[in-house]
Design goal:
The structure is a single chain. The protein is of the alpha+beta class. It is built from seven helices and 30 strands. The radius of gyration is 49 Å and the shape is flat. The chain has a 16-stranded mixed β-sheet that branches. A seven-stranded antiparallel β-sheet has the order 17-20-29-22-23-24-25. The chain has a seven-stranded antiparallel β-sheet with strand order 18-19-30-21-26-27-28, with no helix packed on it. It folds into three domains: 15-129; 135-377, Jelly Rolls, CATH 2.60.120; 388-592, Jelly Rolls (Sandwich), CATH 2.60.120.560. Keywords: Coiled coil, Signal. Residues 1-16 form the signal peptide. Residues 104-131 form a coiled coil.
Length: 598
């Protein structure tokens, strides 16, 4: 064993100091084999290469964590960029959403404005269509205010005819139709709401029939040439009937009929009263038929018609307030047993009004030189105003044509009459501001109103004439109100906290007399008035005897109140007052009471 160990040491030292082995230590490039074919040196070389390879791998493994960290950092930066981009996009989307919301609000506001404008235009149009007077006498040139509709190839001839005591509309062409009218004469613009229409009929039987037969009457609820209703006075031999019919989608249907006593060759009066859901029919001023309607939405365009024979129409009146005065007859209610009653269920056509009107059926009923061209007979008052005191015939007196001395003198004479046809707002006092009031000229009449449209107005607004202060006075004006409005006249005005007011309300259909004392309101008297409405001008007249305490209130020439216990010992002012809603005023007049001479 010892010999092997000694041998190993000798070999080791002999190899260790061998110059070939030392060359391996000094340089890799100068490495040379110990001798060719020596496998032991090759193994050592391979071993060294393997060690170098492992060392290089270790170095690469040391660099790997740094590369991973760098990639993770890049990934984190990318995530931050994506997050920032998403936040920026979110902010942009929020801004866009807010912009869309603002655009939506702006569009809704514009839509509301357009709706208001449309409503205002509709209001203005209806103001023109629903003529200003509360009573209409349709003796106008027939070519301007009527339209005719002919059926079954008939060429009708409607015209005015002057008689000794009246003017009538006649239809000269003989016609015959068993169910529906042969020809219709329709008012172009007039829309009858709650109110009456009256016509006196004179019928002549048709020469086209062997039977003594004639028929004519009133058209109402006219929608188009295929949908309307009509009331006819029909003569058949010695029998006379009042028949109510309707045409729905060009199909005829009889609603109700009633036998009446009538004189065939004389004028007979036919009157219809239209209420909210009721139609009352009067023949020769006596009620004969009552129709209860389930739906009152059908628009009430009215007119005349002939069905069989020829007809003449006179005393054509339409209106509401004070109708019987112009009719010069009293409408009489009959016993219930003498009145035929029926319930009329409106059809889908009348309730929805969905079909389109055929405008080609309408013709202008023009007759050459038919009353139109006679200058002495022309009616200029297309929009007449009730009663002569609505026209301004007095000489205009304004402060513009007076010198300063006259102005001061006129101001000192406080109890002055006022009947001027002009309104100068600088002569008036307002509890708000004069800029809230305006003066408009409509149909030649100056009207005062609160600034705004008929939907938006100032409440509790007053306009007081400053240059007339009286104790006993007659005061009058015309007032026109919209729906859900209350307005009228103020008198005995000391200040905003002490005054008397007469107002009419379209919402409650009542007239109210009230006073303010130390800003405390007291209703003195109120009364329901059926005929108060939003499409007619109402005339308010006040007779005030201040110290005596007597107050007389009139509405449309009808006496409403008489108060005898309201003495007033001062001199008060007068003017207009709007409680709420929208109204217009015109024809304002103040007349001081003259003292009676003994």
């Amino acid at each position: 064993m010892k010999y092997f160990f000694v041998l190993f040491i000798l070999v080791f030292f002999s190899l260790g100091f061998n110059p070939h082995i030392l060359a391996l230590r000094d340089s890799n490039e100068n490495f040379k084999s110990i001798n060719k074919g020596n496998f032991f040196a090759n193994d050592l070389k391979n071993y060294k290469d393997e060690l170098d390879s492992q060392i290089n791998n270790f170095k690469k493994n040391e660099e790997l964590p740094n590369e991973v960290d760098f990639q993770l950092k890049e990934l984190n930066d990318l995530l931050n960029i994506v997050r920032d981009t998403q936040n920026a996009q979110k902010d942009e989307l929020m801004k866009f959403s807010n912009s869309l919301e603002q655009t939506k609000l702006s569009l809704l506001k514009m839509l509301s404005e357009y709706e208001n404008r449309i409503d205002q235009l509709e209001y203005d149009i209806m103001e023109i269509k629903k003529f200003d007077p509360y009573i209409e006498k349709f003796n106008y040139p027939i070519s301007k205010y009527w339209l005719k509709i002919d059926f079954n190839n008939l060429k009708s001839y409607w015209k005015f005819q002057k008689n000794k005591n009246y003017i009538s509309i006649i239809q000269e062409i003989d016609s015959i139709s068993l169910k529906k009218p042969s020809t219709i004469l329709l008012l172009k613009h007039h829309k009858l709401m709650d109110g009456y229409i009256n016509v006196d009929l004179l019928e002549k039987p048709s020469n086209l029939s062997k039977i003594n037969q004639s028929s004519s009457g009133i058209i109402f609820n006219f929608i188009n040439a295929q949908n309307y209703r009509f009331i006819e006075l029909s003569f058949l031999n010695n029998q006379s009937l009042i028949i109510v019919n309707e045409v729905v989608n060009d199909s005829y249907k009889k609603i109700i009929s009633k036998s009446v006593e009538a004189v065939e060759n004389e004028f007979n009066s036919l009157t219809c009263e239209f209420l909210d859901r009721k139609i009352n029919i009067f023949f020769n001023y006596k009620k004969i038929i009552e129709i209860n309607v389930t739906n009152s939405d059908a628009k009430n365009t009215i007119g005349l018609f002939t069905k069989i024979g020829t007809s003449a129409f006179k005393n054509i009146l339409s209106g509401n307030i004070y109708f019987e005065k112009h009719l010069k007859h009293k409408l009489l209610n009959s016993d219930d047993k003498d009145i035929s009653k029926i319930i009329l269920n409106d059809s889908y056509r009348f309730s929805k009004k969905i079909s389109r009107d055929d405008l080609s059926v309408y013709r202008i009923p023009y007759a050459n030189k038919d009353y139109d061209n006679h200058a002495d007979e022309e009616i200029y008052n297309v929009y007449p105003v009730p009663d002569s005191n609505s026209y301004y015939e007095e000489k205009n007196v304004t402060f513009d044509n007076l010198n300063k001395d006259d102005i001061e003198q006129k101001k000192e004479e406080l109890c002055n009459n006022y009947s001027n046809n002009e309104f100068y707002l600088n002569e008036w006092l307002s509890n708000n501001t004069l800029y809230n009031w305006r003066v408009d000229n409509e149909f030649g009449i100056n009207r005062v109103s609160v600034l705004g449209d008929y939907k938006n107005s100032i409440s509790k607004a007053s306009l007081v004439y400053r240059y007339s202060s009286c104790n006993s006075v007659n005061l009058s004006a015309y007032v026109k109100l919209e729906y859900n409005s209350e307005a009228g006249l103020l008198f005995r005005y000391d200040n905003r906290e002490n005054m008397y007011i007469v107002t009419i309300s379209t919402k409650n259909k009542e007239i109210i007399l009230k006073k303010y004392k130390n800003n405390k309101e007291t209703v003195i008297r109120s009364e329901y008035i059926k005929n108060i409405n939003s499409f007619q001008r109402h005339h308010i007249l006040i007779y005030d005897e201040g110290e005596k305490g007597n107050i007389n209130i009139f509405l449309d020439d009808s006496k409403i109140f008489f108060i005898n216990n309201e003495p007033y010992y001062k001199s008060g002012l007068f003017g207009f007052y709007v409680e709420y809603g929208y109204s217009t005023f015109d024809t304002f007049k103040i007349y001081k009471k003259e003292e009676k001479k003994n």
